């Protein structure tokens, strides 16, 4: 099995990709690149069993009717979102609120934050993948799924914040985080790329996305509960690991196990 992880930026610059080859209880970093274009991502997707992309794959369901109402001077769809609580429904998806409730982390808003430009590119990228390999369900039940490296790190007991940036403190944290990852996953062979990973949080996040893609493929992420399933198909679904990092190196289950996964029960 090969898993692809993509840390998607708004343009080719700072977009990172990592491919892990899983075999005989080990994972070897087979490919690692920065400044990756769409054509390369589509090609890597075609050669991978599962792809995890660190970028929203959809927008809140309420967002389009709100914009259409504003465009057409149709008041009710706009006035439904009067006030801060109404605007939160425009800014955050079901999956964003779900992740926050269960991890304490707050994903950036796809419609009201700096993720908007990468998400536009991601929509185009999804269309390119669909043209070559068929449409991929936004809930991650196909071969493409949305991931959130910070959530994966937190679930796996690793540092989830403070390692991004170009300052000395961030570089020190990233180096320590990489060392912790290698200690927690002795089966992970970084193939001599340690220095590159310690110097780039983009490359590191691509590896985390690839590790999370493996978790998805072996049924070790949290699937949408019934009450979120419909929204997940249109808005997207962030796959958060449901098992330990150590479980990723175990032999993969058959096709049924790879798509079943786990679900968190609803909080009362």
Average pLDDT rating: 92
What is the strand arrangement across the widest sheet?
Answer: 6-3-2-1-4-5-8
Kindly estimate the percentage of residues that lie in beta strands according to DSSP.
5-15%
Contiguous uncertain segments of 5+ residues: 255-268
* SSE pattern: EEEHEHHHHHEHHEHHEHEHE
Q: Ends: how far apart?
A: 39 Å
Number of strands: 9
- Helical coverage, percent range: 40-55%
| DSSP helical segment count | 12
Describe the sheet with the most strands.
7 strands, mixed
Q: Please compute the radius of gyration using only Cα atoms.
A: 18 Å
The shape, in one word, is globular
Class by SSE composition? alpha/beta
Q: How is this fold's topology laid out?
A:
Layout: E1 2-7, E2 16-23, E3 26-34, H1 38-46, E4 50-53, H2 63-71, H3 75-79, H4 83-91, H5 94-103, H6 116-133, E5 144-147, H7 149-155, H8 168-184, E6 188-189, H9 194-199, H10 201-217, E7 222-223, H11 226-235, E8 238-239, H12 255-260, E9 262-263
Parallel strand pairs: 1-4, 3-6, 4-5, 5-8, 7-9
Antiparallel strand pairs: 1-2, 2-3
Helix pairs in contact: 1-6
Question: How would you describe this structure to a colleague?
Answer:
- The strands form two sheets. The protein has a seven-stranded mixed sheet. The chain has a two-stranded parallel ribbon with strand order 7-9.
- α1 crosses α6.
- It has twelve helices and nine strands.
- The protein is of the alpha/beta class.
- Helix content is 46%, strand content 15%.
């Amino acid at each position: 099995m090969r898993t692809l992880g993509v840390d998607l930026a708004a343009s080719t610059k700072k977009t990172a990709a990592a491919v892990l080859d899983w075999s005989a209880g080990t994972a070897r970093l087979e490919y690692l690149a920065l400044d990756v274009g769409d054509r390369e991502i589509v090609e890597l997707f075609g050669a991978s069993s599962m792809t995890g992309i660190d970028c929203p794959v959809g927008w809140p369901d309420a967002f389009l009717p709100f914009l259409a109402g504003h465009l057409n001077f149709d008041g009710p769809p706009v006035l439904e979102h009067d006030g801060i609580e109404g605007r939160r429904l425009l800014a955050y998806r079901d999956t964003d609120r779900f992740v926050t409730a269960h991890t304490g982390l707050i994903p950036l808003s796809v419609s009201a934050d700096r993720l908007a430009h990468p998400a536009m590119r991601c929509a185009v990228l999804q269309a390119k993948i669909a043209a070559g390999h068929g449409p991929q369900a936004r809930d991650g039940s196909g071969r493409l799924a949305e991931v959130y490296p910070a959530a994966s790190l937190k679930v796996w007991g690793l540092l989830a914040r403070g390692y991004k940036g170009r300052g000395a403190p961030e570089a020190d944290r990233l180096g320590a985080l990489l060392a912790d990852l290698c200690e927690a996953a002795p089966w992970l062979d970084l193939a001599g790329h340690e220095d590159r990973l310690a110097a780039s949080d983009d490359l590191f996040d691509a590896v985390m996305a690839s590790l999370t893609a493996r978790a998805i493929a072996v049924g070790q992420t949290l699937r949408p509960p019934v009450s979120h399933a419909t929204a997940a198909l249109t808005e997207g679904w962030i796959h958060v690991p449901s098992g330990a990092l150590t479980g990723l190196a175990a032999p993969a289950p058959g096709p049924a196990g790879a798509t079943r996964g786990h679900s968190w029960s609803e909080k009362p």
